[in-house]
Amino acid sequence: MIYRHAAAFGFALSLTLGAPAFAQDDAAPAVEVQADTVLATVNGENITVAHVIASRQTLAQQYQQLPDDVLFSGLVEQLIQQTVLGQAADEISRRNEIILENTRREMAAAQHVDAIVTDAVTEDALQKAYDAQYADAEPTKEFSAAHILVATEDEAKELITKLDGGADFAELAKEFSTGPSGPGGGDLGWFGPGMMVKPFEDAVFALETGAVSAPVQTQFGWHVVKLNETRMVGAPELDEVRAELAAQIEADAVDVALQALLDGATIERTALEGIDPAVSRDMTLLDN
User: Fold this and answer.
1) At CB < 8 A and 24+ separation, what contacts does 91-96 make?
2) What is the pLDDT along the chain (288 residues), one digit of tens a residue?
3) Calculated CA dihedral for residues 87, 93, 98, 103, nearest 10 degrees
4) Is 245 exposed, middle or buried (0-12, 13-18, 19+ CB in 10 A)?
5) DSSP SS3 for 224
6) Helix (H, G, I), strand (E, B) or coil at 237
7) 173 CB contacts (<8 Å, ≥6 apart)?
8) Are 221 and 149 in contact (CB under 8 A)?
9) How far apart are the first and last CA of the chain?
10) What is the DSSP-derived secondary structure letter of residue 51?
11) 44 membership: H or E segment, kind and range
């Protein structure tokens, strides 16, 4: 969008030329500022510390890494440039009015969602969610396995012959496996029921510890699987799943709040059947 290019150009220009009027002398006393402290006035329109703070949050990451003294003066100059350019425009375009309306909706919605999730995620809520999910959880069996993935059954059978002859499984995986675990000797780490595709899982479940499977076919190819060990795992500690539970609590709270707002709102919908969905790509309509 044009206004974004103009802002980026203004900021780059201010960094290139510098802003001596705002350069700070190391010996100058610190000035106590508030959000509404005025840093510049352009034809009667104030630019404040709050404007600089908000503007900084929108900068690309490479600008965020610049020293504060460079950014501070540069942002003030950018805001001055934006202000005079904006004042020179007779009025904001219809396109930008629409964009601003959507931006305001988005920001207002995000603000309300933040308030909802902040109130929802409490220690009591986390404990209740943990108890509901894990209080009656039975220990589950987990498996540590490795595999060698190849393209054909004949290749898999040849690998099994090598293993029967005393070859090292991990070394064969490094040499022949086409899967991402190959460089690590085929090691798949620990996994539980439902985490692997069904044919592979069935083969693992049927193995004794230390045993190697017959060739196993999945949508990924042919596998030779070795079961390294098994273990029984109980419910995790609350702190181990705190982030997962918090995310679920947040999602549930937003869903409930949103549904309540929708139920209480007066919403009149236009039938969409007769409208070409491709209209959503027609930016020229915003200029009418």
Assistant:
1) 93/287, 94/286, 94/287, 94/288, 95/283, 95/286, 95/287, 96/3
2) 444 544 554 444 444 444 444 445 555 667 788 999 999 999 999 999 999 999 998 888 888 888 888 899 999 999 999 999 989 987 888 898 999 999 999 999 999 999 999 999 999 999 999 999 888 888 889 999 999 999 999 999 999 999 999 999 999 999 999 999 999 999 999 999 999 999 999 999 999 999 999 999 999 999 999 999 999 988 888 999 999 999 999 999 999 999 999 999 999 989 899 899 999 899 888 887
3) -30
4) buried
5) strand
6) coil
7) 146, 147, 148, 181, 182, 184, 185, 186
8) yes
9) 17
10) H
11) none
In angstroms, rounded to a whole number, what is the distance separating the alpha carbons of residues 243 and 247?
A: 6
Q: Would you tell me how many other CB atoms lie within 10 Å of the CB of residue 241?
A: 17
The residue type found at 226 is: K
Q: Cα–Cα–Cα angle for 253, 257, 259, nearest 5°?
A: 120
- How would you classify residue 166: left for phi > 0, otherwise alpha for psi between -120 and 50, otherwise beta? left
Beta carbons within 10 angstroms of residue 182's beta carbon? 19
pTM for this model (two decimals): 0.57
